[in-house]
Amino acid sequence: MHCLWCDQEIIKDLNWNNLFQLPRNEVLCEGCKEEMHLLKGPACPKCSRETDEGELCHDCERWGEAPLERNLSLYRYNDFLKDVIAKWKYRGDYILVDVFKEDFLKRFKALKISKEAVLVPIPLSEERFAERGFNQSEALARMLPLETANPLRRVYSEKQSKKSRYDRMTTNNPFTIRTSITHPVVLIDDIYTTGRTLQHAAKLLKEAGAPSVMSYTLIRG
Amino acid sequence: MIKRLINWWDGRFERRFSAVFPPNFNNPHDENSPYALSLSGKLLLEHQLPDDRHTLLENKYLIKIPAITKKHFDYACNRCGNRVQRFFASWPCGCGGACVYCRKCVQMGRVSCCSYLYIWSGQLVGFPRVERACAWEGELSWYQSVASERIVEAVDGQSHLLVWAVCGAGKTEMLFAGLERAFAEGKRVCLATPRADVVRELRPRFESAFPNVSIVARYGGSEEVDEGAQFLLATTHQLLYYARAFDVMIIDEVDAFPYHADPMLPYSTARALKPEATLIYLTATPRLDLRIRSHLNLLPTVFVPQRFHGHPLPVPVFHASFDLKKRNVPKALKTWLIEKKKADRRVLLFAPTIEKAEKLKGEIPGSISAHSEDPDRENKIRRFRQEEVDLLITTTILERGVTFPSIDVAVLDASHDVFDEAALVQIAGRAGRSPEDPDGDVVFFHDGASDAMVNARDSIRKMNKLAEKGGE
Ligand SMILES: [Zn+2]
Ligand SMILES: [Zn+2]
Ligand SMILES: [Zn+2]
C-alpha cells in the first residue's frame, strides 16, 4: 500500500495485537494522518467552532434563532487540509475523498441521526460543475449510509470570496428549491466558514416543509 | 550489442508516442491557417481549443488522440507517460462509462478515459529566419568556445549532445552561438530547467542577448501564454503542454531529476521534439545513466572542466569531527567559524536536515537559516546576497543555481545520506565563483568519510587536472 497523499509506502509492523486481525486498508501513512486534526475538544454546540468551555460562540449568539439548527464539522482547518482540499476540489483528484472516508463515516454514525433523514449535498452552479466534473459535497454524501436528495438548485455563482463579510451576509439567496420536503434534512458540504451558504439552503428547505435541518461538514474554517 | 540495446531502450518513449501519433503525419493542407501560430506544437485539451474546433477537426487541421489508453488490464496516460497503475483512479464521470483518470498529471488539469488530446496537424508555423540574432558581445574562454562550437554542430546535425560543464563554467554564454544558428534557420527552440527561479533568472539575460526573437517564459504560476513564441523558456513540467514542437531542445540540470524513476520528463521530452531534432543536456554532475552513454560514445560529450574565469575549482577539505552527533555546533566547526569571522569572510553552511539547520541558527549568533519549507526564504537569500548577514545556514535547496560572488562553504555532517556525490559537487561549486575571489574554502565536516564525499572530491580533482592539461 502507498499513501494516497504523499505516495510513501505504508509498512505495517506485525505484532501480537494485530496478528489475528484482518489487514486494514490503510489510506494515509502515519505522517500524513498526524496532520489531520479531528475536532474533539470543547466547541460551540451550534456551529462546531472551538470555544474555551464549549459555550455558544459569539457569532451564534448574535444569530439567535436561525433556520440551520446546528452544524457539526469533522476537522480543524490547517495548511495540510487546505492542500488536500485544493487538489481534490480544484485540481479534480476525485479519489482523495477516500482520505476522509473512515472518519467521516464514523462520526456520522455516532450522531445517531434518524433513518428517516435525507442527505442534501450543497449543489454547485452548472458552470462550476462543468468546470470540475464533480460536486465535492455529493462525493461526501455518497460515503454515508442515508438516502441522498437533490431538491436545491444553485442560481448565483459561487464567486464570493472577494466580497466583504457584510456583503456576503446580505446577498440574495443563491439557491432555489424544486420540490417539497417532508423528511428531516442533513445538509452536506466540505467547509463551514461563515455558515451563510448553509443558512440560505436551510431557510429554503424549512419553507418547503423540512421538519428540521442540520449540517454535517468536513472542515470548520 | 549492448549499444543497440541501450539505444532501443532509450527510444521507448518516442516509440510509445509514435504509436498513438505517427511522426511525419501527412497533412493534406497547403494553405496557412490563422491558428497555425498559436496551436502548432501544442498538446491541447478540449477547453483550450478555439470555438470553431469542429471545422478544424473535420478538415483534419486537428487530430485527436485518446488521453488514456487501456491495453489488456493496464492503463497508460498519453499525456504524462504514466503507466503505474496505482496512479489511475476511477471517478463518477459524466461520460457514463467506467471512467478512470490519471493522478500523476492531475495537477496540470485532469485527463480521463473519455478525454482527448488534440494536436495540430495543419501546416506548421513558419518562424522568421533571424539573421545575426545574438547581441551579446562578450568573449568566451577557450573551453567555452570549444563547447560552443560543438553546440553549433549539434544544432546543424540535429543530433544529441551532453555538455558536461563544471559549476561556474558560464553555460548560458556557451549556448549563444548555437541559438543564433537555430534562429537564423527559423527553428523553434526550448530551454527547459527543473526550477522556476532559474527560468526567471535566465529570461532577462536571453532577452537582452536576443532582442529580435520572440521569447516566452512559462512555469507554474506564471501568467504568460505561449501564443507561438520562437524561444520557450520553461520548467520541465511545462513540456506536458507540447507535442512535436521543437527543433532544438536544451535541458538544463538534467541530473536534478531521478530521470530513470519518473518517466514524465523523458516521455514529454521525446514528444515535445520534432522527429528530426537537436537535444542538448547541460549538467555539472551527470548521473550514471548519462555517464554510461557518454562512455560508450552513444551520447557525444563535450567537457568544460574549467570555470569561465580560468581558475581551478576549490577542492573540498575533509575535517573529521567526532562530536558532531553530540553537539549542535561541533568544536571543529566552531573554531573554523571563528577564524572566518576574524578574516571577515562570509559563509554558506549546509546542514543535512531542516531541524539541524534551525538548531544551528539558534546557537550561532548573527546567523540566519533558509530552507525549502520556509516561506520567507527568498528574502533571506537576498539579505545574505546584499551582505546584511554573514552566515546563511541552509539545507540542500541552495546547492544548485543560486550563486554568491565571494563566500566560503562548509557542510556539516557531510557523510549524511542526503549529501550524494552530485549534491556535494554542486555544493563545492558554490565557492570561488567570482574572478576577483576565485579560491573560496570548501570544508566537509564529518565523522567518517562517505563514498559520496570521496567520489565528489575525486571528480573535482579530475576536472581540475583536465583543465590544466587542455589549457596549455
Ligand atoms: Zn502520506
Ligand atoms: Zn457557533
Ligand atoms: Zn497522466
UniProtKB/TrEMBL annotation, chain A:
Residue ranges of domain Double zinc ribbon in the record: 3-60
Classification via SUPFAM superfamilies: PRTase-like
MF terms (GO), sorted A to Z: glycosyltransferase activity
Keyword Transferase assigned: yes
Matches recorded under Gene3D superfamilies: 3.40.50.2020
A Pfam short name: Pribosyltran
Key words of the record: Glycosyltransferase, Transferase
InterPro entries: ComF/GntX_DNA_util-trans (IPR051910), DZR_2 (IPR044005), PRTase-like (IPR029057), PRTase_dom (IPR000836)
Organism domain of life: Bacteria
Record-annotated Phosphoribosyltransferase domain positions: 176-220
Family note: Belongs to the ComF/GntX family.
Protein name: Phosphoribosyltransferase
The organism of origin for this protein: Pontibacillus chungwhensis BH030062
From TrEMBL, chain B:
Membrane-spanning residues: none
Location of the Helicase ATP-binding domain: 152-304
Pfam families: Helicase_C, ResIII
GO terms under biological process: DNA recombination; DNA replication initiation; double-strand break repair
Alphabetical keyword list: ATP-binding, DNA-binding, Nucleotide-binding
One GO MF term: ATP binding
Record domain Helicase C-terminal: where: 332-472
Protein name, per record: Competence protein
Organism: Pontibacillus chungwhensis BH030062
